[in-house]
Amino acid sequence: MRRRVAALAAGLWLFSAALVQAYFTPSQLQKIEAKYGPFAAARFKYLNELYDTLKDADTRTKLDEVNDFWNGVRYGSDRKVWGKRDYWATPFEFLVKDRGDCEDYVIAKYFTLKELGIDPGKLYFVYVRVRGYKTPHMVLAYYETPEAEPLILDSLNLRVFPASKRRDIVPVYTFNGDLLERFGDHSKKGLREKSRKVKRKWEDLMHRMQRNEL
Question: Residue 147's closest CA among 115, 183, 118, 122?
Fold first, then answer.
């Protein structure tokens, strides 16, 4: 996990702050409560409080607290939550449903940390194999510097640990921006196809985030 993509590409995969809402106004919270109920509105109030608490905090505190907040959302498979085989929820959808799978945790943590001032170039989405689990899994990796050992934010192991302490996971591939780094024994053809699939999913996610429907 020490390997690191050296540079980030610009464009579609580097996002403007306008795409992610970091704070919900009282009127928006009222709309959320009217449409989704008081418990959903309460979750967004807690998210507001998280931003208020962490806006001036140090990086490690932000990583730990954001990881804890989103890990408080319950796990639910895409089949059960969305009736689809594979669906990447926006942070808003994730919090409204109060359920989601590994990609949803990672997406929500990524955008929350970005809005709290963490350089998104230090945050990588990593697909991994988890020892003892048959299904693939995704975690978020934070690199303080390009050569640093990453810290792993996960929804299975709830604490933030350095990668060397996570011997239960084996990285398969990671991406940030439109770059995709290969781990393990994968053909170039297979890697290109995986990159296309990831990009399509991300484009769909970004379109839904732009709509930002309450």
Answer: 122
Amino acid at 22: A
The answer to whether the CB of 131 falls within 8 A of the CB of 170 is yes
> Token pair of 115, please?
């809005």
Least Cα distance to 109 among 78, 40, 63, 159 occurs for 63
Residue with tokens 């693939």: 136
* pLDDT tens digits in sequence order for the chain, 214 residues long: 434 333 333 333 333 333 456 679 999 999 999 999 999 999 999 999 999 999 999 999 999 999 999 999 999 999 999 999 999 999 999 999 999 999 999 999 999 999 999 999 999 999 999 998 888 999 999 999 999 999 999 999 999 999 999 999 999 988 885 454 445 444 555 556 667 788 888 889 888 988 766 6
CATH topology of domain 21-211: C8orf32 fold (3.10.620)
